[in-house]
Every structure is written in structure tokens, then in C-alpha cells.
Design a protein that fits this description.
Helix content of chain B: over 70%
Shape of chain A: globular
Largest interface: A-B, 67 and 75 residues
Distance between the termini of chain B: 52 Å
Strand content of chain B: 5-15%
Structural class of chain B: mainly alpha
Number of strands of chain B: 8
Helix content of chain A: over 70%
Order of helices and strands of chain A: HHHHHHHHHHHHEEHH
CATH class of chain A: Mainly Alpha
Largest sheet of chain B: 2 strands, antiparallel
Radius of gyration of chain A: 20 Å
Number of helices of chain A: 14
Strand order of the largest sheet of chain A: 1-2
Order of helices and strands of chain B: HHHHEEHHHHEEEHEHHHEEHHH
CATH architecture of chain A: Up-down Bundle
Shape of chain B: globular
Number of domains of chain A: 1
Oligomer: heterodimer
Amino acid sequence: MTPDLPLIFTILMGAAILAYVVLDGYDLGVGMLMPAADAREQNIMVASIGPFWDANETWLVLGVGLLLAAFPAAHGVVLTALYLPVTAMLIGLMLRGVAFEFRIKAQGWHRELWNWLFWFGSFLASLAQGFMLGSYITGFETGFAYLLFALMVSGSVCGGYVLLGGGWLVLRTTGALQQKALGWTRWGLLWVALGVALVSLATPLASETVRGKWFDFPRTAALMLLPLASAAVWIWIWRLTGRLQRGESAPEWGPFAGAVTIYVLAFAGLAYSLFPYLVMDRITIWEAAAHPSALKVVLAGALIVLPFIIAYTVFSYRVFRGKAPDKFYD
Amino acid sequence: MEPGDPLLIARAQFGLNIAFHILFPTITIGLAWILVYFRVQYARTGEAAWLATYLLWTKVFALTFAMGVVTGIVMSFQFGTNWPGYMNSVGNVAGPLLAFEVLTAFFLEATFLGVMLFGMKRVPGWMHLASTVLVAFGTTVSAFWILALNSWMQTPAGLGLADGQLIAADWWQVIFNPSFPYRLTHMLLASGLTAAFVVAGLSAWRLLQACADAAALRTLRTGILLAAVLAPAQAFVGDLHGLNTLEHQPAKIAAMEAVWKTEKGAPLILFAIPNASEQRNDFAIQIPRGASLILKHDPDAEIKGIDAFAPDAPPVAPVFFAFRIMVGTGMLMIALSWFGAWRMRKSATLPRWLLWTFAGFTFSGWIATLAGWLVTEIGRQPWLVTGVLRTADAVGPVSEAQLGASLTGYILTYSLMLVAYIVVLTHLAGKGSASADGSKPAAIPESTLA
């Protein structure tokens, strides 16, 4: 039996996108939280993501690179349909990416400008990513209801990134800033609960295909494990952050790990809703796949190189473990 | 093509994005290896002055690298947003090459850049040095893959047909296509030369701000000597690259030299205004038989003109002028670097007027690189992949309004980024010069700037 190469690449691409969302999600979240902190705290917050943001964003390039290499026929359809939100996201990512360097090197009002642009870029990129997801789920349908749906997803993604960013800061900071971060995490949790509830209700309404997949007894009963597990993790994080706020002993890695778990569960649900479509109701993974000769060469390369990438990513997180310094370059 | 044509806007937008992007890797590929040199010198001598030099230039590098990363992310999307037909027809070749660039280069540079910038106190010295080398290695590997793809679009090879799709029948031929070795060498030298002038120019700027700065004097010397070696090497490699182009893309050469009609003993046009409507050159200043002599080493050899390729011929005027700007800038770079090297042999420092000249030449590599890029990419038209895919057939269904809106957004963002980049760079070069006499490296780290 020959391996189902398009399926393997769907899994690889999904993994890259999930890695991107979780990893860049926390640093975008930290970016969005900037206005809630004072100048000293802002420096610590940026220092906590300084060594990582660049590699985090590389997962996005890998995701889109795999889309391009493995599914060239879908690549053009998806990206031309998402033209404006992609542009907005890219402009956001550019502004915040260079702001890391500019804000530390600039003086006076220039620094304030780059702090503001760092926040604005993070927010714009997050909004745009949520909008892209929303319009992707519905197969790029147009119309007021779909626009509203995309905006709703957009807001939920921002909330989700704030949750990740808050969890990251709980892990990486101490004292008053950590207390603030606990508050932000709980705020992100509320936002996520609202967003996920609305999106879960709206998605079956927006897409007949999704409705068919989820409301199909007795499969529905098994599928309910996903939202139930998410709810359990949600409650766990809520209680955990409460304990940490009261100064009781609780693992500091908990909120972040919990947030990542919620993402993995939500991603699984999304993957189930979409599969086997790359473009909802229009193009399946097998229809969009590149020629097997191209897939084989990329797969061989990926299997050789990915273990190294994972190894030195782990190495980098080990080197920079612990609490963040209060200066960007220590 | 008419103004307002979606193809034209799509090309203008893609051209703007890729031109803006390439400015930064052009510096970082070369500068990364110069940083390795500074880092090795510090490891070898243990001198605080070398450490200070390394830390200062690391900051320039970090800023430039960030500009390259964020504008590079744009590129990875623009293939699909602007040229969906490109991936549809040659995706089986282009996709894997781009995927390999991400897998083998981007993660490597990004991760070890983090260690290099923030990890000096957290990892042993050898590991920090190794990280610096890995970042430099990553930038060069990235250049390898993207130039393999670009060269393949210029001179495709190794292509096969299977199940009605274009595929790579032979990956070795795809990667090592006829123009690749020349183009890669030409680009790497361009990067080294650009970085050398950035180092020399910013060091000169620093010396102009504060007279006695031993570290800046030393990096000025490094930059000038490196440029003095690389600039003539580039002229030599550029000539070989030109001969390779004559063999594989003669239409591009016809445009570069403004040869309208195929002729024996073609003159070398030094200057002219190419007149496309009448297919001739106005106000030409030329050397008789010069083009035949230079291109074929025979004064009577036949050179194919635009008429031999029409209608699949590139526009002449932009290619012709861009080529002259590239060569002219290159010659100035040779002259300036040699003169500077000669003056530095005579005396330890340089006169102020010469420092001003080097400061003015800080970004001269950008001009030459962009001009060369215009020559090679416009010279490929009307093809996107020579003989395989036309640019007009790859353009997407995106509306003019969307293209126009995003083009405006990009122009505003890039203007802001470019101004900030140059302001911060000159600020960095001028800053802390009073205390940067090499004895107090502690004055250089970010703690004083933050």
C-alpha cells in the first residue's frame, strides 16, 4: 500500500499551523497586553518573548510554505480569497516585528510611538488571523451574516491570544506583574468562553457541512468529549489562577499549559469540521495535492530536518528558561 | 499594457515588496560573516575592544535581520496572493525549493539568532560562537535555495511531464541549472560588498561624530579592505555571469546592450536613449564593434538583436539603464575602496572629506543590487519562467481596488520602516562614541540605551 501523501501533508501542515498559533499566539497576546502595563513592566514583557518571537513566526512561514509546496492548487485560491485580511495581518506582523528592535533603540516620543505600534501591530495581526479563520471556515462566503461571523471569530482569537499571553507571563514573571498577568489570564478565559460558545453555536448555522458532521447520532455523543474536556480544562485554569492570586501554592506553568490544551482541543474540533476539505465544500486535500514526486522530496527533506528543528527549539527554550530579565538585552 | 491594468499593479506591488525585502538580506548575509570574524577575534584575543565591536555590530545586524524577516513573511504569501498561476503550473518545482528554504534555513537562523543576541551570559563561549556561525550559515543556505529557484525561473532545467503536470524530472538539474552557480556567486559577493560598505560607511560616520575612536577606525579598515577585495572580484564574476546570460538568455543581453537589430560587429553603446517605437537608439555614444568584442571576444561576431526575439523580448530602456547604473555603481565602489585602502596604508586615519564620501556610500550596495535585480527580472519578461510560463498567465483574479488598497498600505508601512531604520542606524553608529575607546565595553550594551 502506498502511503497517502496528501493526508500526511495535511497532518504536517496542521501541526505547523497549530505550533504557530500556540507559539506566536503567546507573543501576540503579550503584545496586545502592553497598554495594560507600566513602562518597567513593558520592558520585562518584551524581554520575555525577545529570544523566541522570530522562530515563532517561522512556523507561519512553514505552514504557508507547506500549503504552497503540497497543495499548490489550494494555495492560490485561499490566499486570493483572503487577500485583504492577509495584507492586514502582514502589515501588523511587520510593524510589531521591527518594533522589538526600534522601541529599545529609540528615545523619547519615538519610543512611545514604537510601543504603540507594537501593540497596534499585534492587535491588527491577531484580528486579521481571526477574520481569516472565520472566513475560511465558511468557505469564503460573502454577505453580512458571514462578515459578522468572521468578526466574531476574530474577537475570539484575540481573546485566545490574550489567554496564552497571560499564561506565558504568569510563568515568566514574578511579583506585581505576575499578579496582573493572573488577572489578564482570567479575563482572557472569560473572553474565550464567550467566543468559543458563540462560534460553536454559529458554525453549524454558517455551514451545512459542519452541521452534518456534528449532529449525527450516535457519533455526536463521542464528539461531545471535545467540548467537555475543554470545559474541564477551563475550570481547572480558573481555579488555579484563583489559588495563585491568593498566594496559595499552585503550579505556575498551569495556566499556560491549560491554555495550550484548550487550543489543541479546539484545533481538533476544527480539523474534524473541515476534513477532508482544504477549501470548504470545494477542494479536498487530494484534489489540491501536488504531484507525488514533489510531495516525496519535500517529505524526505522534512523528515530529516524537522527532528533538528525540534531539537534546537527545545535547546533554545532550555537556555532561556526561568523568569524574564527586566532588560531587553541582559 | 495600460495604466490601471491589474497585471501592472500586481507586478508593481510584487516588485515593491520583493525589492524592499531584498535590501535587508543583502546586508545580513554578508554582515553575518563579518560578525563571525569579530566574534572569532574576540575569542582569540580576549580583548574588550573586539567584544564591544561585536556587540555594536550585532545590534545593527539584529535590526536589519528583523526587517528582513518581517518583509520575508510577506513574500511567502505574495506568491499565492499575486501569482496563483505560478504555483498552479510550476508548483511541483517551486514549492519544494521554497519549503527547503524554510526547513533548512529560516528556523536555524531565527533560533540561533535568539541565542546569539540574548544568550551570551547563558551559554558557554564556544556555544555562543557556534551560534554566531550557525546564523551566518543559515543566511547563506537561505540564499542558496532562493537563488536556486530564481535561477531556475531564468534558465529552467530538469523539467518533466507526468500525469499532465509539470514536475521535476531531475532535482539535481533543477537546482544546479545553468545560471545558478553564476547567480549565486554574484549575489553572495553583492551581499559581502554591500555589508562591507555598510561597515565602512557607518564606521566613517562614527569617526566624523567623535574624532578618536580606535574601534571605529578598526572596523573602517575592515570594511574598506573587504570591499577592495570583493569589488574587483565582483566585476570578474559579473562578466562571467553576463557571458552565461548571453548563452542562455540572449534576449536579455540584447536589452542590456540596446541592440535592436541582429548585426555583425555590434557597437558597444555607452550611453543612449532607447527608442522603443522606432526600434533604435537616440543620442547614442558608442564604441564601434565593442559589444561583439566584449561579449564574444571577436570584433566581427554576430550579436542577436531584439528583432530576433520579438514579440517575446523584454522592454529595452529599463534593462539598459539599470544595467548601466549597476556597472557604474560597481566601478565607483572599486575606485573608492582601492583609494581608501591606499590612503590607509599611508596614514592611520582618513581625511574628513574621504570619511564623508564613505559615509555617503553606506548604502551604495543597495543601489547596485536593486539595479542588477531590475536587469535580471525585467530582462526575463515577458516570461515568469523562461519558455514555460508567461507573467500574464500567472496573475490572479484579485480586483484592482484590493490591489490598490494593499499597495497603498505597503507603501506607507515601508516608508515608515525605512525612515526609522536609517535614523536608528545612524543614531547607533554615532552613539556612545565618546566612551567607545575600547576600554569600556560595558558602555556599549543595551543597558545604557534602555
